[in-house]
Amino acid sequence: MVEGIVAQDLDMCFQNLVMVGVEGGGKMMMNNWKDLPMELLLRILSLVDDRTVIVASGVCTGWRDAVCLGLVSLNISWCKNNMNNLLLSLAPKFTKLQTLSLRQSTPQLEDNSIEAIASWCHDLTDLDLSKSLKLTDSSLYAVAHCCPLLTKLNISGCPTFGDAALAYLTSFCKNLKSLNLCGCVKAASDRALQAISYNCSQMQYLNLGWCDSVTDAGVTSLAFGCPDLRSLDLCGCVLITDESVIALASKCIHLRSLGLYYCQNITDKAMYSLANSRSKSSTVKRDNDLWESVKSSSTSSNSSQSRYKNDEEGLEKLNISQCTALTPPAVQAVCDSFPSLHTCAGRHSLIISGCLNLTSVHCLCALQARRVATSNLTSHPHAH
């Protein structure tokens, strides 16, 4: 990002650039900034903010063509007014976009701008439409038809989208790996989750926070259809029970993060299923390592072993705040099974706030620190 440069500074920089070309014996022939080589222009624009890039695209035809061909990522969340009109004007220009962030602080976007983006930007893989309160299902249908390469979609805080439109989108965007539906109370239904499980088997990151119509039927179908899930947020999904967690523990052995905040129907049975899933993950890892050692060379085998070593780490974050039915032995079993879960200061990844009965639960490193302290006191009984 470049700030505070006045016209005289730009002219001086340009003259220096021309002199370097002449003195170096080069053949650089430039009369003004519009003659900058495309590669150099794109390099300069990579150092400035997206607002400056948009302004640069309007300098001249050459700059517009360079920006349109080279720009693959754009964030216009900074636009506080007239974002819809801005997007309508940009869509025909920036046809090579792969990542587009349209997060809004106040609702601005309307369906026509999303339909324009979908019509022109067929290479989109990452789209953020969060807090788009004015959009309707028409936007999802447009994205479904025109953006089949989509792997990441954020429509959190969009309560107007329906589950039929979301299910339809998943039937076209089958490469989705990350989907944020937090607060999408109409879109995130069991029907939609069943469509996701059927169409998007590569799904890894799914946020269903505060989607209070989700039940065990939807989560169970996810567990069976999306075995590669790494992160699942079910915070505020008050209807789910142990059945959901048991299915996830059984089928999603790569799960790293699980949010169960305020899921008060979760009991010790769910916790023990998570704790026991550790042994299953280790068995799968051992079998995979054996197979890899048979079919791979030493180099690829080392890479494989490194990958599976990471997979074996298991849960790294678990939020069970306000799950008041849980008891210390069950939660301690989970903590003991997954060393990456921490209760110690500065490393809280086992979140138990609001569960006063769980204050006795401690991670392995906290227990080890306690043992060391006790050992030191025993070794030096007269120490002060």
UniProtKB/TrEMBL annotation:
Any one Gene Ontology BP term: SCF-dependent proteasomal ubiquitin-dependent protein catabolic process
Residue span(s) of domain F-box: 33-68
GO cellular component, one term: SCF ubiquitin ligase complex
CDD domains reported in the protein's UniProt record: F-box_AtSKP2-like
A Pfam family recorded for this sequence: DUF7885
Domain F-box/LRR-repeat protein 15-like leucin rich repeat, chain residue ranges per copy: 87-328
Protein name: Uncharacterized protein
Source organism (scientific name): Papaver somniferum (Opium poppy)
Lineage of producing organism: Eukaryota, Viridiplantae, Streptophyta, Embryophyta, Tracheophyta
